[in-house]
Design a protein that fits this description.
CATH class of one domain: Alpha Beta
Helix content: 25-40%
Number of strands: 4
Distance between the termini: 55 Å
Shape: elongated
Strand content: 15-25%
Number of helices: 7
Order of helices and strands: HHHHHEHEEHE
Largest sheet: 4 strands, antiparallel
CATH topology of one domain: Alpha-Beta Plaits
Length: about 190
């Protein structure tokens, strides 16, 4: 009668592999970015995210380059699409936008045509600050800014619920903004 072997007797411990032989935890997209950016490029991106109004001389000084190579790098980063634009960060409270609503939109059906149509409609609405096509329950998750609850209610009842193919809306309101950053995390590029 054959004896049963336990998994502890059949499993062999593998010797630790050197870091070069281990699979990279990075995705192919990150690996591609890493090959195109060096430490100066990453530092430039970080500095410009924090303050897009830096002069070239100030930026060059902060990243440790002379102005001409710094300027060439910024132009290359713009041309290659790493920098997609420069924007002013506005204070929503000063502008009277006191309400942030997170809205999950449920479509009556999720086909390519319906998704495209809804997406195009949502993109055109200035009150919609962000829009994500999502997995799980619902079709889209949007962030809406409004002056107050009445203004949001009018927007939801007059415009959102009346979009073609919208079956239902579920709204949550921000009770207080803990963090609202426009800066992308760049730590993975420094690995």
């Amino acid at each position: 009668m054959p004896t049963k072997q336990t998994s502890s007797t059949t499993a062999k411990a593998r010797p630790p592999q050197p870091p070069s032989a281990m699979a990279s935890p990075q995705t192919p997209e990150v690996d591609e970015v890493l090959t195109g950016l060096d430490k100066f490029d990453i530092h430039i991106l970080s500095q410009l995210q924090a303050d897009g109004r830096l002069t070239n001389a100030e930026l060059a000084n902060r990243v440790g380059l002379s102005p001409a190579p710094c300027w060439r790098r910024v132009r290359r980063l713009e041309t290659e699409g790493y920098i997609s634009g420069y924007h002013a960060a506005l204070n929503r409270h000063k502008l009277g936008l006191g309400v942030i609503a997170f809205v999950r939109i449920y479509a009556d059906r999720n086909t390519g045509e319906v998704t495209r149509e809804l997406k195009e409609q949502l993109i055109q609405m200035p009150e919609v600050m962000s829009c994500h096509h999502i997995s799980g329950e619902g079709s889209f998750e949007i962030t809406v800014m409004a002056t107050d609850l009445d203004a949001y209610s009018r927007f939801a009842m007059d415009r959102l619920i009346n979009l073609p193919h919208v079956k239902d809306l579920h709204t949550s309101f921000s009770l207080g903004e803990v963090k609202a950053s426009h800066m992308l995390p760049l730590g993975h590029l420094r690995s």
